[in-house]
Amino acid sequence: MPTQYDAIVIGGGHNGLVNAAYLARAGRKVLVIEKRHVLGGAAVTEEIVPGFKFSVFSYVVSLLRPEIIRDLDLPRHGLEILPLDGTFTPMPNGDYLWRVNDHSKTRREIARHSKTDAEAYDEFGKEMVRMCRFVKPILGMVPPDPTSLDPRELKKLLFLGRRFQALDHEDRYNLVQLMTMGATDFLDQWFESDVLKATMSASGIIGTFLGVRSPGTAYVLLHHYMGEIDGAFRSWGFSRGGTGAISNAIGDAAREAGAEIRTEVQVVRILVKDGRAEGVVLDTGEEVRATVVSSSLDPNLTFLKLMDSSELPGEFLEEVRRFKYRGSSGKVNLALDGLPEFKSLPGAGRHLRGAMSISPSVEYMERAYDQAKYGEFSSRPYIDMVIPSLTDPSVAPPGKHVLSCFVQYAPYKLKPGLNWDDQRDAFGDAVINTISEHAPNLKDIIIGRQVLTPLDIERSIGLTEGNIFQGELSLEQLFFLRPVAGWARYRTPIRNLYMCGSATHPGGGIMGAPGRLAALEILKDKGTR
Amino acid sequence: MAPQRDIVILGAGHNGLVTAFYLAKAGHKPLVLERRAVVGGAAVTDEFVPGFKVSTLAHSAGPLLPEIAREMQLERHGLAMIEPAVRLFALSPDGRGLLLHSNTGDSVQQISRFSKKDSVKYVEFQEALARYGGLLRQLTMLTPPDIDKPSADDLWKYLKLGRNLRNFGKKDMMRIIRWGPMAVADLASEFFETELLRAAIAARGISGAALGPWSAGSTALLLLRAAADPHPAGAAAFPRGGMGALTQAMAAAALAAGAEIRTGAEVQSITIKNGAAAGVVLVGGEEIAAKLVISNADPRRTFLKLIDPVHLAPSFVVKMRNFRANGTVGKVNLALDALPSFTALQNFSTAQALSMNDGTAALSGRIHIGPDIDYLERAFDASKYGEFSRRPYLDVMIPSILDPSVAPQGKHVMSINAQFAPYRLKQGDWNLQREALGNAVVETLTEYAPDLPGKIIDGQVITPADLEDTYGLTGGHPYHGELTLDQLFITRPLIGSSDYRAPIHGLYLCGSGTHPGNGLTGASGYNAAREILKDLR
Fold first, then answer.
1. Of residues A147, A181, A217, nearest to B173 (C-beta)
2. How much of chain A is in helix, strand and coil states, percent to nearest 5?
3. What is residue B1's predicted lDDT score, i.e. its pLDDT?
4. Is the CB of B496 less than 8 angstroms away from the CB of A173?
5. Which of A83, A229, B73, B121 could pair with A235 as two cysteines, CB 3.0-4.6 Å apart?
6. Residue ranges per domain, chain A?
7. Is the ipTM of this structure higher than 0.85?
8. What is the DSSP letter of B230?
9. CATH number for the segment(s) A1-100+235-529
């Protein structure tokens, strides 16, 4: 007789693993099914060029919830976060802007561009911390249903209302602005120097198909401020051994708690009978039964690929179909023989140990966006890059380095006549050319390169349209609207079928919150033992 | 000593006149001061070429809130509205045209020439707009609540509104919440597959704003407009004699109710004494004392130009400086020797389908130039970099077709709103670029009506700089302030100052820079009067 599981988790990405770990810790018999040979989904480390370990997709960490690190005891399972210090923004005029964690240094540096901005920067940082304090508990809560009159739901809304009322006038003003404005418009109110606004607003567009001035991007800016490492807001880091090490640590924690993990086997169907999920069918033809099926895949895959549309209510299907993915970014990973040398700040200084951002002006960012709107990749894209090998020598042979470049915009849908398989090399070249304008030696030190278009991201790790957050982080797709209004609480119209991926509240980044919250909801429904 | 006035209102724009009327009706004697020689603000008729008259700015009306039109008895005061049967004629460069009628059945028939599916969806869309628009209409008539300390009265009103929303059921409730922050391009493509129809609908979410159809929040603007007129294409009605006829009738109504209006009286500053508004000083030095001062000027002009900043909290001044009010609209008015021939009407099958004798009926509403979403977005792109669009989005009217009083016999007037024309140009100033803007507009239109250039007798180009200089609109913004999510409702103009009361005792705002700010509806002036009367009781 086949094994009966309490829960099957589809997808061994970080959220799937977190979900499995929490369920297993509660004594459930859990099976995780991952189609690839490595665990982690978008958080994987792979040796693409011999000797070089790339964090292939996701490359930095900040948002991973402290309670998950604690609950799952991740450091014991090998998680080690190394600090990523500062952001270096080279400019075409030979100057640069360099912000580091060293307070007075950053202040002096910004003052070179604008004295008033240097003053405002401190104030801004403090204000953002206050905003984060307000928003943080929301990341840890199951979204309320604002249309429900259920006292439990009303209580949650009241909780939010009270918290809002408890803010002072200025904070309320800023919060409303953050929820409604474009990133650059918001920053315009604080700062005057263009390069500072450009490079700061860049975090407002990550994973969206929006420009830095589009309303709604100020929220994404805040989302990226929410990072916290060892209690310090807005700090980002690498995981030793690449982001795959995070997934491996979570995977270990899950296994230790009793979860079973099978790789290189794919779910082809979710078994549904009389509106209830009963298990899954694997590509081997094997049927695996379980009380609960928890999908960490996005709604497109879960509902439109793994299920028959006749099994779902029409209205729900309609909403699932209109959920927006629109991947807008690509990734270029380079194996280097040495270090890039920036014209504006030569030498192997500390600036190479932080993030390097190609975001020299607001106009540059907007023009990059404009091209993408009409179906082309940006010929001069926004690039966020890191050299993890400087901080973590284990990822490259001695003396050699890894350069990991996040690139936006690379629209999933190209204009008619273009396709990504033909455009891949040109895209990679555009990225290298763009960086070379600031670091001319780059081309001479490249040993190997990996170019990932949104199509490649979709093909390799299943993210629909290559959206790194499993669905755009736009205002109409957040909180109780994520992914579908009325179904934002990890449950689905199919009984015993749950969602636990980034397509659910609070969304993407290596955060783990959806996986955890979904597990808690599943345990709530299925009783604790 | 000059006699003490009860109430002084700065600016005889339509909102100022509405406020004046309601205050006068309640027994007060407001004095309205207008800097120009004519009343009406941005809603005036101008004889721009001898014999040719045109609505200076907006050419189709809000429409006005029916209660205002009724209570002010505007028809008795000479207002005659013309309501074309055709709302919008959207033109495509391939020579086709899509007609949206006032009447749903006719619109459906026209749309089905493009797509059967869209003609069905159109009815669904219209019904949704009517439902949500009706609810939002209630919202536009309410004073935004004070989020710092909402009053019991606020709570009651909003609970009532919430109950009405709840009556819609869960699906509609969620939809309204989801739609607000959406890009109008997404909304249009959720419903329609015909690009021309998508663009015609989406235009309503960007008109007058610094938004492109892909900008998040543009759907909120469309909904705000649906609150005034739920027709998917928007209003096409206009007063006989041009928009000035509307404000003339309003002025007459205000006068009849007991208000006093002085033109050619420009306010130089608002006098503040002991922390309270005490009157105004006119250019030339005349002082007028008053207990209450109501400003129909835009918020930036009111707080940054007319008031000594020592009377305002520094943080308020900073926020007001950040209030975004840079306009994106230019206006081109043409005097025509005869109607131009639009390609879409020469196309026999189209003309036949339109079942018209001479085609003028199709041109009698608004004509939409902006055939696809990308076209509109590209037009917007230019403005982000401080350039005007070489191929702008145009909203065109030829009022002389239904109102012969505005042009000599057989001749015509063409009124064109052109977007995007950003207030701040990267290169040169508007005096140098004025002609180029006019040329771009005429060139664009010529692609749809090739014989247009030969019919032009004369023309006028109104740039955002003119809107500021001539009409006193700071930043040249026709709505006194950008219509984005962060500047609507409780945040219009600023959080904590959205209840028409300025942070100075005895000073009020009643213009378009306050909630709802949705064009020529009179709602801002109406709501302001209600709040002021509450304080006067």
1. A147
2. 40, 20, 40
3. 41
4. yes
5. A229
6. 1-100+235-529, 101-234
7. yes
8. -
9. 3.50.50.60
